[in-house]
Amino acid sequence: MDLKSYIREIPDFPKKGINFKDITPLLADAKAFAYAVDALVDSCVSKNIGYVVCIEARGFVVGAPIAYRLGAGVIMVRKPGKLPYECSSLSYDLEYGSATLEIHKDALKEGDRVIVADDVLATGGTALATIGLVQSYGAEVAGTAFLVELSFLKGADKIRPHAVNALMKFDY
Ligand code: AMP
Predict the structure, then answer these.
(1) Distance between CA atoms of 18 and 110, rounded to whole angstroms?
(2) One of 8, 9, 58, 149 is an active-site residue; which one?
(3) Does the active-site annotation cover 149?
(4) How many independent structural domains does the chain possess?
(5) Residue 138 included in any domain
């Protein structure tokens, strides 16, 4: 299946210079969505995964069906103030300024094996922060799952040695 034909390019969104990869046409097409989830599940099945850690917000849509298919739990990583219970947090640098992600304090324990899931890997800062949160429990990132990798932004270098498992690669 030509998955890239389901990704809509939105120039200058949300700000000038960003070529936004809109995944909503892929999500809305039953066959393309099922194909994408199945393909990501196939790359994770042998890894004995306890949880899929999903990054707010589009990562929830990608990660939750993968977790269901793997027989794994879903853990949400969210922006500050969204999760109701006690949280651990991690701040990281953006191009301008910084951002923080939170996860429930009791979400993971030492030895848990997880997949980190999001829609798009761009600079890798968000994924790296999420990996940091997972590792702070002594849990293991056994894999990643992205629909799209923006290879020109070198996110793969940032999250090394963790491998980028992405269905589509764009170099623009
Ligand atoms: P980054 O931390 O730079 O890897 O950015 C990752 C987060 O920003 C992901 O959660 C993506 O959903 C979103 N993102 C960044 N750049 C884009 C883009 N060009 N198109 C769509 N989403 C993007």
Answers:
(1) 38
(2) 58
(3) no
(4) 1
(5) yes
